[in-house]
Amino acid sequence: MKKDIIIIGGGAAGMMAAYSAALAGGTAVVFEKNEKLGKKLYITGKGRCNFTNAADMQEFMENIPRNPRFLYSAFAAFSNNDMISFLEENGTKTKIERGKRAFPLSDKSSDVIKALNRALQKRGVSVRLNEEVKDLWIEEGAVKGVVKENNEKVSADAVIIATGGLSYPLTGSTGDGYTFSKKAGHSVTPLSTSLVPFDCDGICKEMQGLSLKNVRLSLCSSVNKKPLFSGVGEMSFTHFGVSGPLVLSASSLIKDDFFKEGLFGKIDLKIALSEEDLKERIIRETKSSPKRSIKALLEDLLPRSMVLVFLNLLSIPKERILSELTKEERDELIRLLKAFPFKVYGKRGYNEAVITRGGIKVNEIDPKTMGSKIVRGLFLAGEVIDCDALTGGFNLQIAWSTGFLAGKSAALFCNDI
């Protein structure tokens, strides 16, 4: 007789867990409180869905700052290459772009969701939309099923929590899984936003809409000037501060305590040129065009929308011409080009965070099964676990892999009882 496996949550991890459970012989039932599956997936990657990364396993692990070793078994059970094959086999063509990021060929996240839905239908997975789980049903240290919003109990031989984190709460990620897990006896590490933009001072807001490519962003503590992050890539200025891939990566790597203390940022606007190179260029410009203004020089070196902000930071008069520039003033200009300053006041909220940092402690979960070490028959998958990664498709692969392993393990557990 087939045993029932309830999956709480129909996002990336939940859908994959349901597919895997059914594939391994279980009867999978997904409870999703939204009106459709994969609601958060629809907006992933600005609607394009960077669903995984084609990096080798060593590079993959280097992009997971928290608890990467915990994920070895999950990645072995279902790898990034397995995910690419899964989508292709279920009717969604894929492509690899810069940084080994994998996307659906159509650039439509809906095609990833369609492939998952096809796979679930093929395996006979039951999906119950607009049905919210209120609690776990646990007796004598073993899960017996779930309790619905109307207090109705639904029995199951195994339950998988795949409810996501706290990011993008409008998609249904409201932290239910943390509540369920804590009531069941699990510990949850401190939760905060990750892969999220920064609130900054007025300088950044003055350049709203400007994007910078191939710059170096450095962040230091305002308290002890300790360097905390340095990376090269793209960033942008917004009405509240800064965003873009570089900023999101920094938000994932810097400890929350430093945001509370305060940070200051520096942007190397000319990473291809050393200070000596810039000095030689200015000297050449001065010899060839001595009456040229500092403003005209900066318009050649910087995006136009940045020039006035840059000039206002200099102690040099705006009307100064190159031939009147002193050595000290030239050095000041060069220093600013190599270290454009701004202050960081904090991280943005969960409405703008790609993922949640923190989650259920990994030492309370069996990494070989994703099974709870505290409650028999309970399994965990996806963002609810204390594992997260940098941008580039790594976080979704954590969801696919832990979901697949949890589903398979739940089915095997049911076969043994």
In short:
This protein has 417 residues and is α+β, with helices and mostly antiparallel strands. The protein has 15 helices and 21 strands. It has 2 domains: 4-193 and 356-416, FAD/NAD(P)-binding domain, CATH 3.50.50.60; 197-348, no CATH class.
What does this structure look like?
This protein is 35% helix and 24% strand. It has 2 domains: 4-193 and 356-416, FAD/NAD(P)-binding domain (3-Layer(bba) Sandwich), CATH 3.50.50.60; 197-348, no CATH class. It is an alpha+beta fold.
Topology:
Elements: E1 4-8, H1 12-23, E2 27-32, H2 39-43, E3 52-53, H3 57-62, H4 72-77, H5 80-89, E4 94-97, E5 101-104, H6 109-122, E6 126-129, E7 133-139, E8 142-148, E9 153-155, E10 158-161, H7 176-183, E11 192-194, E12 198-200, H8 202-206, E13 211-221, E14 227-237, E15 241-243, H9 245-253, H10 256-261, E16 263-268, H11 275-288, H12 294-301, H13 304-313, H14 327-338, E17 340-347, E18 355-357, E19 365-366, E20 371-372, E21 378-380, H15 394-416
Parallel strand pairs: 1-2, 1-10, 2-6, 10-21
Antiparallel strand pairs: 3-5, 4-5, 7-8, 8-9, 11-18, 12-15, 12-17, 13-14, 13-16, 14-15, 16-17, 19-20
Helix pairs in contact: 1-6, 1-15, 11-14
- Tally the helices: 15
Q: What's the end-to-end separation, in Å?
A: 11 Å
Low-pLDDT windows of residues: none
CATH architecture of the largest domain: 3-Layer(bba) Sandwich
Q: In terms of structural class, how would the helical and strand content be classed?
A: alpha+beta
Integer average pLDDT: 95
Largest pleated sheet: 6 strands, antiparallel, barrel
Taken together, the total number of domains comes to 2
User: How many β-strand stretches?
Assistant: 21
Q: What is the CATH class designation of the largest domain?
A: Alpha Beta
- What shape does the CA trace take? elongated
From the alpha carbons, calculate the radius of gyration and give it in angstroms: 25 Å
What is the name of the CATH topology of the largest domain? FAD/NAD(P)-binding domain
Task: Assess the beta-strand content as a share of residues.
Answer: 15-25%
CATH homologous superfamily placement of the largest domain: FAD/NAD(P)-binding domain
The amount of helix comes to 25-40%
- Main sheet: strand order: 12-15-14-13-16-17
